[in-house]
Design goal:
238 residues, alpha/beta, Elongation Factor Tu (Ef-tu), domain 3, Rossmann fold, six-stranded antiparallel β-barrel, 35% strand
């Protein structure tokens, strides 16, 4: 399957293409499915970093369709990893539900990066939802001694079940999705001023829908004065 104009643009940015092979699949919850893969040599070429994601290509009515997914439990020595799919309508989830061992799928690596905050913050502020749940787990595991306050936007009661939290370090705030994500921004606007402390030492990681991510980034940088390099924000979906 060709990758169309998106693939051509990615090639201009020296993106690397790989073929993954399915080794198994399982349903984790009613709203999450996991597919296991061998990496086609990717991890030895790219290495691994926290929140690492790849662009996976799916067929959509005969046209190429790419979506980003965070690697779960990547093992460079074994050349294996998992991808977790939050269930919703669309070609990616349809593919995941039907995936069987031996199937292959194409992927592109370009755009994924992570720089740990230096110095480490006294507390992290994390904003995400079902789409960014695997990345949140990766982030927390990468900084196991840093306390974190997490605002997790939920559409289903079991959305947060797969979060891997340390009860002594992590405070979880479940926020129901309302007002097209606006409710999450309102909750943050109320809570953050009393928690942020010295904005120069703060660190925030934001990965929600486009509108919420933009609103939270503005709140952190413009209203609360957190320096640009201490806010790691990426819209995971629209």
């Amino acid at each position: 399957m060709g990758h169309g104009w998106e693939g051509a643009v990615l090639k201009l940015f020296r993106a690397k293409d790989f073929t993954f092979t399915v080794t198994g699949a399982e349903r984790l919850t009613e709203h999450f499915a996991r597919v296991r893969f061998t990496d086609g040599g990717m991890l030895k070429v790219t290495g691994v970093h926290p929140t690492m994601w790849v662009r996976v290509w799916f067929a959509n009515a005969g046209r190429p369709h790419q979506r980003g997914y965070t690697l779960v439990d990547p093992d460079p020595e074994a050349g294996t990893f998992n991808l977790d799919f939050a269930m919703h309508d669309g070609p990616a989830c349809e593919w995941a539900l039907a995936a069987e061992a031996g199937e292959t799928i194409e992927a592109t690596v370009q755009g994924s990066a992570f720089t740990a905050p230096d110095p480490l913050p006294p507390r992290m502020f994390v904003f995400g939802d079902a789409a960014s749940l695997p990345a949140i787990n990766s982030l927390l595991a990468a900084m196991p001694d840093v306390p974190a306050t997490i605002w997790f936007e939920t559409a289903h009661d079991d959305d947060s079940r797969l979060l891997v939290l340390d009860a002594g370090l992590h405070r979880l705030n479940l926020v129901p999705r309302k007002e097209a994500g606006g409710h999450l921004v309102t909750e943050a606007r109320t809570a953050l001023p009393g928690l942020i402390g010295d904005p120069r030492e703060a660190y925030a990681w934001v990965a929600c829908d486009f509108k919420s991510t933009r609103g939270l980034t503005s709140l952190l940088r413009k209203d609360l004065g957190v320096p640009k390099h201490r806010v790691n924000a990426m819209a995971y979906w629209r």
